[in-house]
Write a structure and sequence with these properties.
Chains A, B: It comes from Aquipuribacter nitratireducens. The structure is a homodimer of 356-residue chains. Chain A is α/β, with parallel strands linked by helices and 356 residues long. Chain A contains 14 helices and 11 strands. In chain A, strand 3, helix 7 and strand 4 form a beta-alpha-beta unit. Chain A binds a DNA duplex (16 and 16 nucleotides) through helix 2 and helix 4.
DNA sequence: CTGTTAGCGCATTCAT
DNA sequence: ATGAATGCGCTAACAG
């Protein structure tokens, strides 16, 4: 395994020059650089990340913390972020942290890993920064992240105290509801939020708030939300709840497309005409939304992830030139990306207006 | 940022003892261990991964190379592998390597990253081992992986020269076809393979071979495969191709459920009754297969990933005790996990037999 | 533009 | 069971 000394010997320069040449620092004569690169190439030399980190204090790695990888939003974020960071030479350390539950004690001899130890032990000293994807955080976790001593960015929601890239979820809820209102619906329910429940969390809660706003502005009473996890299976369950729980609304806002798709299927298999009897609107513009003809509020997922990654890269750059200290106010960035309505075949004028 | 020396001073022992105590080595007196752990805890000491790697030669990290993260098979593998490795204290370095295409040159001053540099530079010295998920490998890449100098495991196909965990894809194609044959179909097509095309690749090619075998055993002539990428959108395209390209078969084997779902939708929106006019069978048992009533050959994805991860962990353990050298024959492991048929509503006896 | 000199923070001998 | 000494391979001053 060739080391930097081998390259230095082969080139007849010092290891310092090899290091500089290979990193592309300006202060190396062009011919020298070329010779060094050639030698490194032919020796198959690859710098040791460990040695480099130890000497420089930088790891050239970023932690990516996510509660899921198979759900659409998260997988898109992961792909986008990995690609942006990789381009700039950063490695991605993937950390999957299931929402809400403590990890099981492992068979290891050492202390079993908990959320706490993962947050600190793993991320501290191993990475130069951390990106967190829409993970419900309790206050203590937020403090832990801020105490990591390096930059942390949040994607998918706006969380106070952390630089965040997301969308305006209140506006999303409002616009989805308004679309149904404009079509003439007055009896509108929302599926997939805990409402103002103290356990309620970020996006679903904010979308419900938008729904409440829109209903209020139309002089209508908002219904309490139908609780439901953001999955197709849960959407189906919610549909059954809707079908058996009193009069069916004519319009339904699903806080995510996955819920919307579940709703669509279950309502139709129960013989309910969508959009004839019930209109359904989702949020996301999931790739399958088109397949199912689901009207939705599209959110730019890759764009959120890319904006966050690029912003982080720029911050890391500034940190480097300022000698490792995070600039004041680094954590005040809050960016909302625009959403837009995508009309498909799951929403229509309510039957009562078509055949009065 | 507390260092091992701080802990040593606080405890009144040497750094060597701190190191041993914190790693749970046997040769430390119980009371000493406790004192050290307490001190480390209260000082918030976290060992530096870089220093530890440099000193020990082990990184406690594993590279995970995948062509996709949003596709179901891959996301399940990623989640499973991360979880298994994390439990044993290994970090996961995620590397997304799009199949087939060279990466674009980045804006960096250094050589733009290519598949080649990623395979070597990134993985060599940064990780103790690498797991590769069903990525079409050309021979050179395979050699590169083997030349990495550390353990490499392949998941999702059986590749000669690399320890592999997968399923019997020929049998999968055979069983899917046999299911249709048993129902009475004779006019059966397969969608999603390049057949014996030299560019053809692993699982789809093997599943086509199984189809050919089953057709042959039934005394029928196999049709050339309908080419199609393994996505819903491509499945829809393939359906249109089927609809316009001569007589429609009565049975269709889709080499993946995503294709199958696309087929189902497009056929039905064209007014073709499934399974009345055409039966469709997929492969995977994708979570959405149930939603669509798609009959399929289920494969155990999490199990493949877990088997590979655990096998790797065991190998790494052996490597450690033998002083860092890979044991002879480490690369000869080839494991096939069982699949099974899941009958749903997309396959039935052909109409010709129902109304003779 | 290049060489010299020091560590970076640990794990590991080899002692005891 | 514990301590002292050594070096992993590189980068960062500091000279020149």
């Amino acid at each position: 395994m060739a080391s930097i000394e081998d390259v230095a010997r082969a080139t007849g320069v010092s290891t310092a020059t090899v290091s500089r040449a290979l990193r592309g620092l300006a202060s190396v004569a062009e011919p020298t650089r070329v010779r060094v690169q050639k030698a490194a190439q032919s020796l198959g030399y690859v710098p040791s990340a460990a040695a480099s980190s130890l000497a420089s204090g930088r790891t050239k790695a970023v932690g990516l913390v996510t509660p899921h990888v198979s759900r659409w939003f998260f997988s898109v974020c992961i792909e986008t972020i990995e690609s942006v960071l990789r381009t700039e030479g950063y490695d991605v350390l993937l950390v999957i942290l299931p929402p809400g539950d403590q990890l099981e004690p492992g068979p290891g001899a050492v202390t079993p890993p908990s959320r706490q130890t993962i947050e600190t032990d793993l991320l501290r000293k191993r990475v130069d920064a951390t990106i967190v994807l829409t993970l419900p955080l309790v206050r203590r976790e937020l403090e832990t992240l801020r105490g990591l001593g390096h930059a942390v960015v949040y994607v998918g929601d706006l969380v106070p105290g952390l630089p965040s890239f997301g969308i305006d979820d209140v506006a999303v809820g409002r616009r989805a509801t308004e679309h149904l209102l404009r079509l003439g619906h007055r009896d509108i329910a929302l599926v997939g939020s805990n409402g103002e429940d103290p356990d309620g969390w970020g996006p679903p809660r904010d979308r419900y708030r938008g729904y409440v706003q829109a209903m209020g502005a139309a002089g209508l009473d908002p219904l309490p939300p139908v609780r439901c996890d953001l999955t197709v299976a849960e959407g189906r369950r919610a549909a059954r709840e809707l079908l058996t729980g009193g009069p069916l609304p004519t319009g339904v806002v699903a806080v995510s497309d996955e819920i919307g798709i579940g709703l669509l299927h279950e309502l139709r298999s129960a013989g309910v005409d969508v959009p004839g009897r019930v209109s359904v609107i989702g949020v996301d513009d999931h790739p399958h939304a088109d397949l199912h003809g689901l009207t939705t509020i599209a959110q730019p997922v890759a764009e959120q992830a890319e904006a966050a990654a690029r912003w982080l890269l720029a911050l890391l750059q500034r940190v480097r030139v300022t000698g490792g200290r995070l600039p004041a106010g680094w954590d005040s960035q809050q960016e909302r990306l625009p959403v837009h309505l995508v009309e498909r075949r799951s929403t229509a004028v309510p039957a009562s207006l078509v055949n009065p």
